[in-house]
């Protein structure tokens, strides 16, 4: 057993110090750690690309909706246009509020008491749903960003333990024997950082964008609720 470890340790320098050779020479546990971190990194980048496109699309849709909404177009016409397609962001809040508004009037309700509260509630529920949709996947980025370095460090510690075991078995502290094992172990930490750094950076970026979009939607919700409230008061007085 010790002979095999010694042979592996002594043969390591011949494999070179490229990333691929270091990976193949690493202990099986270290390999599993690096493969797991590589998979997590690919998953994070898939989420990052998807979120970049999603936030860009939502912001563009919200800008377009605000321009049309404040252009003076009638609410009924705007509702017909927006409800004809899948709406997100402010459009989703508008459709939810108008749907409740129209449901009340089309049912022939004699009293409008409580309509304002119902509109507020449906917009709150829709707002929570939209924020949840924007935040989907961010938990993965946060998890990889916080746990990635520690997982990589675990692989490094395991690799160094294995390297020291090989050194003890070979009874040779020559740098040519020690260096490959240490390099293989440190590669796991590098993988952890490669996975974690983009995850943390883009998580902070996306969390800020969610906060800004949420503030915009909340502001629109309050303004639109005020508009509908005035119309409810006018119709009740009539």
Automatic annotation (TrEMBL):
Keyword Cell inner membrane: yes
Keywords of this entry: Cell cycle, Cell division, Cell inner membrane, Cell membrane, Membrane, Transmembrane, Transmembrane helix
Signal peptide: none
Coiled-coil ranges from the UniProt annotation: none
GO cellular component, one term: plasma membrane
Membrane disposition: Multi-pass membrane protein
Location of this chain's protein in the cell: Cell inner membrane; Cell membrane
GO BP terms: bacteriocin transport; cell division; protein import
Database matches in Pfam families: MotA_ExbB
Transmembrane segments: 28-49, 138-161, 181-203
InterPro entries reported in the protein's UniProt record: ExbB/TolQ_transport, MotA_ExbB_proton_chnl, Tol-Pal_TolQ
Keyword Nucleotidyltransferase included in the entry's annotation: no
MotA/TolQ/ExbB proton channel domain span: 117-218
Family indicated by similarity: Belongs to the ExbB/TolQ family.
Subunit structure: The Tol-Pal system is composed of five core proteins: the inner membrane proteins TolA, TolQ and TolR, the periplasmic protein TolB and the outer membrane protein Pal. They form a network linking the inner and outer membranes and the peptidoglycan layer.
Classification via NCBIfam families: tolQ
Record's function text: Part of the Tol-Pal system, which plays a role in outer membrane invagination during cell division and is important for maintaining outer membrane integrity.
This protein's name: Tol-Pal system protein TolQ
UniProt organism field: Faunimonas pinastri
Gene symbol of the encoding locus: tolQ
